[in-house]
Design goal:
Length: about 750
């Protein structure tokens, strides 16, 4: 086996032609490419036309036969294959791509690869802008025309030092249906595509070695359905083209001329190359017939004229409206007698400069399979194998949660790209919080957040990964959605406003009374579970009646608040003084007061317990404007004792002013006891629209998708463009107020 040590060193190339399928297996070594085995199988019916697969099942079955025969001869299983697409509806784009570095550095092969990938992306963007059809195209090959080092042309960048490198690059595109048909036929045979290239790119790998590319040459690969063309000049491949006319058009003429089926007509056409004056065949009536070879040549001559004229016109168009110096012809269709002579006439060059290339260009190909074909039919199949070493595939297939995806390969694909392609919910990738509770207290909104759930679990080929893990063709990606946390739960007694008791001087002694709160107008205990939408108002006072009940010391006789006569309904605020006669007797220490002391002690313990850290935090959402208590107290110099108390009006004025003074004290307490306001609001310009993001402490790029009306199901294999302030952005990159964000699919 020529020193092959493992299956991984083998390359399996498959030329899926209109008339036949050619499989080649070999490996590359220092002395050249070694061909270990070849297998040729013709289609049993016309399952392909003009390079386009029409019957995927039949083509897939033929591929399977070729695969099995090769496996039998090699004694190895073949799992991956390199293929080439014919140039039907071929489009090309030439771009100049530049890469600047921060400082001078030595250029590596990775730098060159990244430069090529950037060129492909640039070409794809330009092509989509020019695509005036409804067809979706894919890049199926690229060729660097020339490289530049700091602005000067150079043959090879690797190893040189530079601050800027650039390249002229040709990218080739084919319709999605051509590409998909090839992939499905190959998968039908149990194979995965390792590399996809274009047939003229593959053919030129063998037919025109690098040393000949300084000349202005053309390569014409004449197949059954298409004639693929490539042009070289100044050491590079400068253009690709195609015409949808080839050998089958001549076979169709013979079908009509001799009244035979297509396979018999193919036999007659190939017999022309043997030099025999007469050709024997059987017509559709089953009758044996003979015909002179000259008669067949005469019948197909006008069609050869037409075909070579079209090839000539395409060569001139690709070469700047002028003929090339010489033409190399490969493929079975170009072996028809008279083809090369007619092509030289159409181009206006010497007939000796249009020649069929076969064994003469395979000097660096080592055929270990002694029965291998060495004619022009084998140029493209071997070139397909060599293309595997020259370029990487331009898009990949992966499986995401059981769904097979086709992704445009920019060389840096990650799990997040696959997730976006299938429109995997953004909220299922990141930890989810349980439902929050929003309520108001004293007219100011508060939020209690739920707990955070577990992050999504990501596996690639059963190995742990994350959103930024790179993915490759054939990877099996499994993403288990993140789980929600517990819903918020918050008791009334956990509010910071209720943790600090009200201190009141009662009969010369300081007592602490727990604050109480009204929820939706009803007095609730501290163990009340706050609900979404609740309106809470904290009472910063006790009435005289409530104080006496709390202390279990009924009031009798005169009652004074701040030395002012009062009644049982009078409100008593923080640091007020309350004096009254207990049970009809002057104040003295009694068992009731001792009981009150115990209650105060109990209340102090409750207060200490309430000040312990709570599991949930309370966040302020909207600012409130505090009332200036000093202004209230000094407005007109009015004191509570100066106000009359003979009707309801004076009492209401006392209460109002007391509440205003108390509210400022409460706000001061709130500033000291309430947790910080952790929520922020960010305004960004996303795709020309102003969006407001609320409800989080901070924001990252991907949060914009929650507000932006962006269809994540419209990718169809395209890459998503994410820009932040004019630069490429990562999905978890922080954003701030005023940022300009752009999210779009690569344009068709």
């Amino acid at each position: 086996m020529g020193g092959v040590k493992s299956q991984g060193s083998l390359v399996f190339g498959l030329d899926i032609g209109t008339r036949s399928i050619v499989g080649t297996v070999g490996y590359k070594a220092d002395d050249g490419f070694h061909v270990l085995a070849q297998e040729i199988k013709e289609h049993e019916s016309r399952a392909m036309l003009d390079g386009q697969i029409h019957d995927i099942g039949k083509v897939g079955n033929t591929i399977l036969e070729v695969k099995k025969n090769l496996e039998s001869r090699l004694g190895k299983e073949l799992c991956e294959v390199c293929i080439a697409a014919a140039g039907r509806v071929l489009r090309t784009v030439t771009v100049n791509v530049v890469e600047d570095f921060e400082s001078e550095k030595e250029i590596t092969d990775e730098d060159i690869y990244n430069l090529s990938m950037s060129g492909i992306e640039q070409a794809y963007t330009e092509f989509q802008a020019q695509n005036d059809t409804d067809m979706k195209f894919y890049c199926v090959g690229y060729t660097p025309v020339r490289y530049y080092l700091n602005g000067y042309q150079i043959g090879n960048l690797e190893g040189h030092k530079a601050k800027k490198i650039s390249a002229d690059l040709i990218a080739t595109f084919l319709p999605d249906d051509v590409v998909d048909g090839l992939y499905k036929a190959v998968e039908h045979a149990g194979l995965h595509v390792a590399n996809l290239t274009l047939e003229p790119i593959a053919a030129i790998q063998v037919a025109i070695p690098d040393k000949f590319r300084l000349l202005n040459l053309a390569l014409v690969d004449v197949g059954a359905g298409t004639s693929d063309i490539s042009i070289t000049k100044d050491g590079s491949i400068i253009a690709y083209g195609m015409i949808p006319v080839a050998g089958d058009s001549l076979t169709d003429v013979i079908v009509q001329k001799c009244l035979v089926d297509f396979d018999m007509a193919e036999h007659i056409k190939r017999s022309l190359g043997t030099g025999e004056p007469e050709i024997e065949f059987t017509d559709i009536m089953g009758l044996p017939q003979k015909i002179k070879a000259a008669e067949i040549t005469e019948a197909i001559a006008p069609y050869i004229d037409d075909m070579t004229a079209k090839v000539s016109d395409e060569i001139k168009r690709l070469n700047g409206d002028k003929p090339v110096s010489a033409v190399f012809v490969v493929g079975g269709g170009g072996m028809v007698p008279g083809y090369t002579e007619k092509l030289s006439e159409s181009l206006g060059i010497l007939k000796e400069r249009v020649a069929i290339r076969g064994e003469d260009v395979m000097k660096e190909i080592i055929f270990e399979d002694k029965n291998a074909h060495k004619d022009s039919l084998m140029v493209t199949p071997i070139g397909i194998c060599l293309s595997f070493y020259a370029q990487s595939n331009n898009f990949i297939f992966v499986t995401f949660n059981g769904e097979r995806l086709k992704l445009y390969d920019n060389g840096h694909l990650s799990v997040s790209d696959a997730a976006l392609q299938v429109a995997f919910p953004n909220e299922d990738l990141f930890p989810k919080r349980g439902k929050a509770i929003t309520f108001s207290i004293g007219g100011k909104s508060r939020i209690v957040r739920g707990t955070e759930g577990e992050s999504s679990q990501i596996l690639i080929n059963d190995e742990p990964a994350d959103l930024y893990t790179q993915i490759h063709s054939g990877d099996i990606i499994e993403v288990k959605a993140s789980t929600p946390g517990s819903d918020a739960a918050f008791k009334l007694g956990e509010l910071p406003e209720l943790r600090t008791p009200i201190k009141i001087n009662v009969n010369g002694k300081i007592f602490e009374f727990p604050k109480k709160a009204l929820v939706n107008g009803e007095l609730q205990e501290t163990f009340y579970e706050i609900k979404d939408g609740d309106d809470i108002k904290v009472n910063n006072f006790y009435t005289v009646e409530q104080i006496t009940e709390f202390l279990d010391t009924p009031a009798a006789g005169d009652i004074k608040v701040n030395q002012t006569p009062a009644v049982l309904k009078t409100k008593v605020y923080e640091d007020f003084t309350l004096d009254y006669t207990i049970g009809g007797h002057s104040h003295k220490t009694s068992k009731n007061e001792k009981s009150a002391d115990k209650k105060t002690e109990k209340n102090q313990k409750t207060h200490e317990s309430a000040e312990a850290p709570a599991e949930n935090t309370v966040e302020a959402v909207e600012p409130d404007h505090a009332v200036d208590s000093e202004q209230v107290q000094n407005s007109g110099g009015v004191s509570f004792a100066d106000l009359p108390d003979d009707d309801g009006t004076a009492a209401e004025m006392k209460e109002k002013m007391a509440e205003m003074v108390g509210s400022e004290e409460d706000k001061s307490e709130e500033a000291n006891t309430a947790g910080p306001d952790l929520t922020t609001t960010v305004n960004v310009n996303a795709n020309g629209r102003m969006l407001t993001l609320t409800g989080k402490e901070s924001y990252v790029y991907v949060d914009v998708f929650d507000k932006l009306n962006f269809d994540l199901k419209a990718g169809n294999g395209r890459k998503i463009i994410t820009r932040l302030n004019g630069k490429n952005a990562q999905y978890l990159e922080p954003i701030k107020d005023g940022d300009v964000i752009e999210v779009r699919w690569e344009e068709k």
